[in-house]
């Protein structure tokens, strides 16, 4: 019966899933191809793992290996966009580690996994054919990592190979490389050790015909000409990877599937919209008095009227065809306005910036704050200082990959729904917010001093959004850091460059004509072909991210975009300098304070307290953070000067001088037993002194397990000899044992009148030398 059920289930799976190429790929022979990239060899293999997927590939560099699988449904999705999902996973087992959470297994996704997933998505999404609305999933799994070669670039190449080796329609393959720069020399796919001294971290995905598909870069003020040279070298090396993947696809005799249905807008409906609504759409887009909200409202009014007209004219048309007919014409009008008339919907020239205003020191209690307004994009940034104990701790796999255990500068980007006049979920971090924050953080990190004594948290909250909020966050963050007194090496500004292009009629993958737009609006990003974000100082580039919506960009266009962005960046910096030209000389009065406290070894035990009790009480009552620097020095971080004053009083009370200074080395004292413990007795030598432990080993020459064996009790007075303090832990050293032998009990007086005895009612002990 069980076998019959299994057979039925197998037949059902075969019935519901069409027998396209992936079913037979499990019988393909494993194949491996190598790519020589300088002194390193990149290996791409297929046919051995995950053979039920539409496409699978493993890419290896050194001993780091990443596997990617590609699966796409054979029935179209009802959505009107490319339903592509990319997930990258790095498991602790790949680094030979066990997760440190209580379940000892991977939980959720880390920031690094999300950012790498976005890298892969942005690299492969532009090459899917227009109208391919089939659910597609790319999964990249880190199989092994050697701690030398980073897996993110390998994951992009693995995803490219998996798609190229599948029957999924895709206009690839692409190739990806990392470019570093050490002492002016460019390195392709540098090791982790080489990257520690590299001034450039450029990840570039290139397409066939030497086109640029994706760029993600962080740099330490790299000059424009050096950056452009790195892009060209990177594109050259991507072509070798592309040729290798193409060769594998030919050997595997890959044939792409023909989709059952590709969504396309009926030409007669599009023509009807042109005749009935084109002029009204044109009037809205050429009225520069509109802002974001009023323009959207005006277009929506035309949309509703046109859709009603289309439904009456074409009663059999589906809803998506009605909606898309209007979208095709409105996009066409908008793009032709830029291409043919060199006009933008807000009336600006193609290279002009929106109006910019800056303000700092908005709220006195904050350590630093700034507001940056560019057109209808507004970002509020605030700076918070905390102790170095508050650094971001990396998870074990990220530490194994990058070697970075923590970081003392972080930028958190927030995009609430009211920024675009919407209602939505508040709280949490989505992939977009995480990516935008990471880009702004990359832009600012190179100017942060590496020896800054505090952890810096920069929050960027988008209050209004109409294009390029990530670059506005970089500008606002730079202003806020200077307002907080962080000695950044230079101000940083960022700008986004857009693209409106016209494809070649004979070769749709090539660009016939184009216009670059400086400081794009939200609508120019949505209806355009590129969002090219560049940030940097007056000297050079600190971050760059290129999101491309077409099959690729020629190198000439990329170089032109970098130049146009550089000119705009310098103009923005000039405006920002009018608000604040350099960091404040001193931090604000309510800012945090760090001081060092020297605690002699003799008082360290008292300062720390039993089991760290005094330190915990000090931190709980005053809010300070204490960390030990060396044997006698402690660093005290206080969030405010008031908290530091409280901590100083507390420390002074704990470590204040007492009558201990009157004790003499080798002197004999009479003390009172205050407590009986299993390991010894607590003895107080005088009323104002803390009780000191007299260990069992120092009570008597006989070996005892408990003080009661000697008949000792609380309140009893005993004589002890003082041997100073232990040089390692600072504890007082007392002994009763040495006084038990006849030789040690002879008390020598300093003079005939100085020999004294201590009575039970004495308040001041006096010692005599033995």
TrEMBL record:
GO molecular function annotation: 3'-5'-RNA exonuclease activity; polyribonucleotide nucleotidyltransferase activity; RNA binding
CDD domains the UniProt entry points to: KH-I_PNPT1, RNase_PH_PNPase_1, RNase_PH_PNPase_2
Transmembrane segments: none
GO annotations of cellular component type: cytosol; mitochondrial intermembrane space; mitochondrial matrix
The enzyme's E.C. designation: 2.7.7.8
Subcellular location, record wording: Cytoplasm; Mitochondrion intermembrane space; Mitochondrion matrix
The entry's keywords: Acetylation, Cytoplasm, Exonuclease, Hydrolase, Membrane, Mitochondrion, mRNA processing, Nuclease, Nucleotidyltransferase, Phosphoprotein, RNA-binding, Transferase, Transit peptide, Transport
Keyword Cell membrane: no
SMART domains, sorted: KH (SM00322), S1 (SM00316)
Enzyme class: transferase
Membrane topology category: Peripheral membrane protein
InterPro entries per the UniProt record, alphabetical: ExoRNase_PH_dom1, ExoRNase_PH_dom2, ExoRNase_PH_dom2_sf, KH_dom, KH_dom_type_1, KH_dom_type_1_sf, NA-bd_OB-fold, PNPase
Domain S1 motif: 666-737
One Pfam family matching this protein: KH_1
Listed GO biological process terms: mitochondrial mRNA catabolic process; mitochondrial RNA 3'-end processing; mRNA processing
Keyword Ribosomal protein: no
NCBIfam families named in the record: polynuc_phos, PRK11824.1
Assembly behavior: Homotrimer; in free form. Homooligomer. Component of the mitochondrial degradosome (mtEXO) complex which is a heteropentamer containing 2 copies of SUPV3L1 and 3 copies of PNPT1. As part of the mitochondrial degradosome complex, interacts with GRSF1 in an RNA-dependent manner; the interaction enhances the activity of the complex. Interacts with TCL1A; the interaction has no effect on PNPT1 exonuclease activity.
Name of the protein described by the UniProt record: Polyribonucleotide nucleotidyltransferase 1, mitochondrial
């Amino acid at each position: 019966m069980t076998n019959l059920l299994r057979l039925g289930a197998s037949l059902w799976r075969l019935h519901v899933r069409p027998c396209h190429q992936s079913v037979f790929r499990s019988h393909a022979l494993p194949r491996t191809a190598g790519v020589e990239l300088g002194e390193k060899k990149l290996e791409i293999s297929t046919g051995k793992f995950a053979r039920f997927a539409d496409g699978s590939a493993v890419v290896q560099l050194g001993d780091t290996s990443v596997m990617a699988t590609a699966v796409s449904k054979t029935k179209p999705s009802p959505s009107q966009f490319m339903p592509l999902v990319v997930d990258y996973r790095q498991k602790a087992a790949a680094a030979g580690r066990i997760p440190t959470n209580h379940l000892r297994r991977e939980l959720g996704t880390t920031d690094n996994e999300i950012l790498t997933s976005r890298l892969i998505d942005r690299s492969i999404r532009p090459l899917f054919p227009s109208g391919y609305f089939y659910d597609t999933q790319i999964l990249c799994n880190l199989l092994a990592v050697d701690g030398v070669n980073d897996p993110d670039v390998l994951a992009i190449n693995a995803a490219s190979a998996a798609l190229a080796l599948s029957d999924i329609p895709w206009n690839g393959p692409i190739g990806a490389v990392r470019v570093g720069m050490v002492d002016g020399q460019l390195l392709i796919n540098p090791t982790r050790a080489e990257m520690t001294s590299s001034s450039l971290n450029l990840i570039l995905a290139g397409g066939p015909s030497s086109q640029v598909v994706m760029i993600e870069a962080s740099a330490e003020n790299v000059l424009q000409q050096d950056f452009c040279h790195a892009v060209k070298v990177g594109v050259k090396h991507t072509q070798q990877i592309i040729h290798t993947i193409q060769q594998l696809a030919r050997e595997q005799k890959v044939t792409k599937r023909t989709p059952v249905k590709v969504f396309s807008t009926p030409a007669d409906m599009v023509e009807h919209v042109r005749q009935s609504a084109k002029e009204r759409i044109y009037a809205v887009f050429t009225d520069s008095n509109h802002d974001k909200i009023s323009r959207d409202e005006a277009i929506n009014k035309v949309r509703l009227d046109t859709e009603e007209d289309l439904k009456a004219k074409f009663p059999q048309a589906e809803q998506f065809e009605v909606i898309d007919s209007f979208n095709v014409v409105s996009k066409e009008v908008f793009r032709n306005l830029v291409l043919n008339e060199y006009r933008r919907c807000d009336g600006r020239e193609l290279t002009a910036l929106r109006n910019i205003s800056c303000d700092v020191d908005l709220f006195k209690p904050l350590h630093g704050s700034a507001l940056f307004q560019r057109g209808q994009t507004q970002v509020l940034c605030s700076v918070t200082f905390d102790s170095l104990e508050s650094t971001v701790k990396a998870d074990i796999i990220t530490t194994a990959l990058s070697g970075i255990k923590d970081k003392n500068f972080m930028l958190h980007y927030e995009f609430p729904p009211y920024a675009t006049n919407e209602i939505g979920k508040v709280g949490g971090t989505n992939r977009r917010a995480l990516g935008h924050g990471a880009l702004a953080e990359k832009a600012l990190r190179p100017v942060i001093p590496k020896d800054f004594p505090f952890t810096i948290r920069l929050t960027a909250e988008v209050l209004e959004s109409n294009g390029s909020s990530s670059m506005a966050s970089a500008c606002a963050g730079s202003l806020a850091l200077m307002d907080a007194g962080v000695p950044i090496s230079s101000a940083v500004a960022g700008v986004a460059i857009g693209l409106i292009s016209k494809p070649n009629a004979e070769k749709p993958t090539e660009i016939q004509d184009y216009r670059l737009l400086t400081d794009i609006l939200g609508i120019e990003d949505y209806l355009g072909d590129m969002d090219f974000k560049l940030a940097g100082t007056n000297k050079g580039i600190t971050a760059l991210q290129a999101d491309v919506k077409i099959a690729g960009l020629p190198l000439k266009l990329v170089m032109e975009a970098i130049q146009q962005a550089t000119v705009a960046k310098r103009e923005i910096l000039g405006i920002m300098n009018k608000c604040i030209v350099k960091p404040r000389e001193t931090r604000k009065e309510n800012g945090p304070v760090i001081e060092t406290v020297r605690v002699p070894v003799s008082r360290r035990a008292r300062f720390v307290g039993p089991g760290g009790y005094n330190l915990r009480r000090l931190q709980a009552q005053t809010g300070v953070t204490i960390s030990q620097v060396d044997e006698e020095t402690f660093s005290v971080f206080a969030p405010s000067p008031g908290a530091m004053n409280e901590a100083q009083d507390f420390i002074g009370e704990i470590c204040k001088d007492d009558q201990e200074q009157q004790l003499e080395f080798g002197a004999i004292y009479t003390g009172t037993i205050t407590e009986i413990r299993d390991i010894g007795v607590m003895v107080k030598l005088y009323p104002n002194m803390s009780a000191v432990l007299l260990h069992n080993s120092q009570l008597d020459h006989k070996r005892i397990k408990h003080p009661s064996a000697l008949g000792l009790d609380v309140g009893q007075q005993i004589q002890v000899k003082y041997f100073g303090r232990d040089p390692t832990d600072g504890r007082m050293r007392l002994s009763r044992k040495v006084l038990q032998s006849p030789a040690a009990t002879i008390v020598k007086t300093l003079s005939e009148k100085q020999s004294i005895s201590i009575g039970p009612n004495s308040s001041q002990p006096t010692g005599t030398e033995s």
